[in-house]
Amino acid sequence: MYTTDMSGKTKAETVAEDPALIAAFEARVANDEFIEPKDWMPEAYRKTLIRQMSQHAHSEIVGMLPEGNWITRAPNLRRKAILLAKVQDEGGHGLYLYAAAETLGTSRDEMTEALLSGKAKYSTIFNYPTLTWADIGAIGWLVDGAAIMNQVPLQRTSYGPYARAMVRICKEESFHQRQGYEIMMHLAAGTPEQKRMAQDALNRWWWPSLMMFGPPDNKSPNTEQSMRWRIKRDTNDDLRQKFVDITVPQAEAIGLTVPDPALKWNEERGAYDFGEVDWEEFAAVVRGEGPVAKERLQARQKAWDDGAWVREAARVHAEKRANAKVAAE
Amino acid sequence: MSDPSKEWPLWEVFVRGKGGLSHRHVGSVHAADSKMALEHARDTYTRRMEGVSLWVMPSAQIASSDPGDAAALFEPAEDKVYRHPTFYKIPDGVKHI
Fold first, then answer.
1. Which among A13, A227, B52, B72 could disulfide-bond with A44, CB atoms 3.0 to 4.6 Å apart, if both were Cys?
2. Which ipTM did the prediction report?
């Protein structure tokens, strides 16, 4: 499960809504109550959720591509079975989230079309290529690790179906991170070439992983509203700091070096100081200029187009059988 | 553009965690018919021994209460404490009741 906050898209709603309903809604949310599909909710809340949840779902589905790319080349049967299970989980996570988003009144096809047209985004991390086997280790360890950091608080997000999907996802996610770390651990303890491969993967995935927490707080205009609505429970910078603090010792434990010359333990803060993320690069990848952005969408488009006849045939077959059954009764 | 009539219908999925427990709602899937809905439910919701039995039913067939009626429906129970055994004071010496 992967989520990147791509704030800055939602505009304040101008439709007049009953102030009494809004006040009651705000009070429920402030009181940590869950909002369920049939409950009244402000249109902006609904829209923000549809955007966030569908992008989250798209990220899971697109996230299957860089790893699926390595299934046939996994170094042994154990790794292959594990990778298959992980990629299948990502598909499952996408489906939990699509289903949860559909309770807000958007359809599966609408969401798919928004992804394919480029209207909806997905996590920028998947627009980087997976060049070596060590990248599969780095993705599990860092990308899934960052995702867990983002997702654990979402288990208490205010929208019930989203929170429930996140509970399932978080339960499954921990295996993803551990299998990735295990790959890195073995490579780091292997031949000098293997260790170099692991270090190279860490070098390439470190910064994109930090970008997964979204823009810095002072450039994340929706954070305040999303936090008030309990859609979001921690700020981007807080989660990023937490991730760095947890991950640096994990790298050290297996003899790898985090590629940040500014990285330094700050005794006073009890946290690591670290260098500035290249936000220009982040912005470019969000705009769709990531190294393999085109390839990713082409792969999704192809799967959608190639599957069209199957969707159609199954639907027509089911209709025919249902009609025949009615006729026979 | 998307045509809702061409989407596979939505099914609600219920899983029995283990023998002796009732089926519990876990989420939903799209499928053309009930057989496919069961297959999708199996792949989507039971990858880790979450259950021993599945139910699927068309989402469109579910009728549910209106949240706006919640007070009218459920609040009257609040002042009927005499429906609970602790409402009744029984002397300490009296056993097995």
1. A13
2. 0.86
